[in-house]
Design goal:
9 strands, 28% helix, 3-stranded antiparallel β-sheet, Cyclic Phosphodiesterase, Chain: A
């Protein structure tokens, strides 16, 4: 294989990850497809998911290192839980000016390095996408960009389509706000999960 599917993410601090793993485990009784863990299905907030040629992986890591040196640590605020179509349960965060700038820099630097490659799932779904999504895939290989980027931390995915009020889990989204101080790049797994760390990058303090 001459390419790899990656997820460039915000890596939350351990306290936030610990809470996310606990919540994910509590949701397991509802019948879920994965549970967040320490070494697999890692808690994260996606910024950019794409397919890149292996020959460009070192360049991608260098670009992320450069970006990390430009961005100072910044706060993000959680504001609600979501139970979205498809069964995903996640915590949504405000897309503040720091998040916007961070994604802009990553798209600017990383997008050219994917050599126009597109992930299999997007190739398969492309005919069903709206015109807006099709254009995003053609240009960036990713649909969640700019005003359509909604930062979130996924807790799990339900095997059946329950609505949030049917789930009896003591989740407190107010406790999930934090200061962003680290980025990371992972090998992407099914359902947008992070399966294996490639490298992490500390932000300027």
């Amino acid at each position: 294989m001459d390419h790899i599917d990656v997820n460039i993410v915000i890596a939350p601090p351990e306290l936030i990850c610990k809470k996310a793993r606990r919540f994910s485990k509590q949701l397991r009784k509802q019948g879920t497809l994965f549970t967040l863990g320490l070494k697999d299905f890692i808690p994260h907030i996606s910024i950019y998911m794409c397919r890149i040629p292996l020959k460009n992986l070192d360049k991608v890591q260098k670009s992320l290192s450069d970006i990390s040196s430009l961005i100072r640590a910044f706060p993000i605020t959680a504001y609600r839980f979501r139970n979205v179509k498809g069964g995903y349960i996640d915590i949504r965060y405000y897309r503040n000016i720091h998040m916007r700038r961070l994604q802009f820099l990553i798209l600017q630097q990383i997008n050219p390095l994917r050599d126009s490659l597109i992930r299999d799932k997007d190739k398969e779904k492309f005919p069903t996408y709206s015109l807006r999504k099709q254009r995003a895939i053609e240009k960036y290989g990713y649909t969640h960009i700019n005003n359509y980027y909604f930062p979130h931390l996924t807790l799990t995915k339900l095997a059946t389509q329950l609505t949030f009020p049917e789930m009896d889990v003591p989740l407190k989204w107010e406790d999930m706000s934090f200061t962003v101080n680290k980025l990371a790049i992972y090998i992407t797994g099914e359902h947008g999960t992070c399966r294996k760390l490639i490298k992490s990058f500390k932000l300027e303090q």
